[in-house]
Automatic annotation (TrEMBL):
One of its GO terms (cellular component) is membrane. Residues 49-216 form the FAD-binding PCMH-type domain. GO terms for molecular function: D-arabinono-1,4-lactone oxidase activity; FAD binding. PANTHER family: D-ARABINONO-1,4-LACTONE OXIDASE, L-GULONOLACTONE OXIDASE. This is Probable oxidoreductase. Keywords: FAD, Flavoprotein, Oxidoreductase, Signal. It comes from the Bacteria. It comes from marine gamma proteobacterium HTCC2143. Residues 1-27 form the signal peptide. InterPro entries: ALO_C, FAD-bd_PCMH, FAD-bd_PCMH-like_sf, FAD-bd_PCMH_sub1, FAD-bd_PCMH_sub2, FAD_lactone_oxidase-like, Oxid_FAD_bind_N, TAT_signal.
Amino acid sequence: MKKVSRRQFLATSAVAAMYGYSGYALANNGKTRTEPSSSLPWSNWSGNVVGYPQGRISPNSDDELAKYLKSTSGSIRPVGSGHSFAPLVPTTGNIIVADQFNGLIGHDSEKMTATFGAGTRLSDMGAALQQVGQAFFNLPDIDRQTLAGATATATHGTGINFQCLSGYITHVRLISPQGEQIDIDETSDPALFNAARVSLGALGVITQITLKNRSPYRLKQRSWVENTNHVLDNFDQHAASHRHFEILPLTHSDYSFVVSTDETDEPINNPPPSLEEEAAMGAAMRSWMEIPPEDRPPLINGLAEQIQPSEKIDESYKVLTNIRNNRFNEMEYAVPLEAGADCLREILNTIRDKKIDVVFPLEYRYVSRDDTLLSMSSGHEDHAAISVHRVASEDYRPYFDLIEPIFWKYGGRPHWGKIHTLGAPELAKLYPRFNDFKSIRKQLDPRGRMLNDHLRTLFGES
Ligand SMILES: Cc1cc2nc3c(=O)[nH]c(=O)nc-3n(C[C@H](O)[C@H](O)[C@H](O)COP(=O)(O)OP(=O)(O)OC[C@H]3O[C@@H](n4cnc5c(N)ncnc54)[C@H](O)[C@@H]3O)c2cc1C
C-alpha cells in the first residue's frame, strides 16, 4: 500500500463513501423544504435544506435596507453563504443578502480592531487584515462563511484558549426588523451586545461587525496518526501545550488523525495536495468499502498505520482553514470539557457495536467559554465540541438519531448551524440566559417577521 497523508485520506474517505453502499439511503436524504412557489429555489451548501423564498433582496447601504424594512412588513430571513446545515434560512417571504456589505471598512491599530461589512467572507478577511498589520486569533475549519453568518451561529475553531468568533466582536451594527439602525457595543447596552453577537439572524439584519484581532503570525501545523485512547488519555496536556490541538477519530478503527498547530518563525512550506495521489487513494478505499462493515476494522487500522506524519507552515489564516470539496451533513454538540472524552468514547463504541456503516472521521475540539447569551460555549465552563458527519448523498437521520441522545446524556448543547432536533423546552434548560434572549428578540421583533418554522420551534413561538 502506498503511503498517504492525512489530507489525502480525509479527501478520499468522503469520495469512497459516496461510492460505497449504505444501509441508510432513503429517497429524500432528509431534505428540509418549504412549499414550492413560483420563485427559484434556494439551497444550502450540503443540499439538505431547500426553500422557495418569494424573492431575494440585496440592499446596497444601511439606508436602503432601513427604507425597505420600514416600508414592508412581510417575513424576511437574512442569509450568509448558506453553509449552515440547520434550516435557519428558508422563508416563504424574502431572503436578505448582505453581499453588498463587503470588505474592510476601517481599522484601529492601537486597539487592534477592524470593522468589516457583515457579508464579507472569512476567506477575504485574512489577507485584508494582514495588510493593516492584524490577524484573526482563530478560525473555523473552513473560511467560506460570511462574517455575519459565522458569528450568528457562534462558529468556532479549536484551542482551549480561544473563544468562538463571536467572542472577539466589539461592535455590531444592526438594522432592526422595523428599520431602525442600532450600533451596539459592550458599553452601549451589554445585554443586547451579548445577544447580538450570536443572534441566529433573529434580531434584525447585521450590516457591519468590528472584531478584536492581534498582530500577524505564522503557524506550523503537524498531523499524524495515533491510538485514539492514548491521545484522549493525554488530551488535556496536549491542549495546554499546543496553541491549537484537535483529533479526527476514524470510525471502526483504534486510530485518530491528530493535528497540532503552533506559532513559528520558520519559512513558509505549504505545498498543495496532489490530485493524482488522492485519486489513487480513492480507488483503494472504494475497493475496501465492498467488504462488510464487521470485517473492516483490521483493514482500516492497517491503512491508518500507513499514514505518514505531515506538516505545513504558512500565514496563520492559511493554516487554520481547509478546503472541503466533498459535501456532507453534520451534527455537532458541545459538552462540558470534563465529559468530552467519555462522550466521544461512547459515540465511537456505539458506531462500532451497532455496525453503523460510516467512514467519515469525527472531529473533537476544545473551545473556551464566552459571555454571549447563546454560544455553545457560553457560561462558566470551557467545552469540548464533538462532530459527526455523513456524506451528503446518504440519509443522515438514522445515524444522527442514534448519536444525538448520547450528546444529551452528557449535557450537550447543539451547534445552532448544524443538525439537531431540540426545541425551546430543552434549549431553555441548556442555556441559563435563553429567556433573556427570547425577551430581547420579542422587543426587537414583536410581530415575528424574522421567524421561520425552525426559529419558531427553537424559541417556542406559535
Ligand atoms: C464544510 C463546513 C465546515 C464548517 N466548519 C465549521 C467549523 O469548523 N466550526 C463551526 O463552528 N462551524 C462550522 N461550520 C458551520 C458554519 O460555520 C455555520 O453554519 C455558519 O453559520 C455558516 O455561515 P454562513 O455565512 O454560510 O451563514 P448562513 O448559513 O447563510 O446563515 C447562518 C445564520 O446567520 C444568519 N445571518 C446571515 N447573515 C446575516 C446578517 N447579515 N445579519 C443577521 N443574520 C445573518 C442567518 O439568518 C442564519 O441564521 C461549517 C459548515 C460547513 C458547511
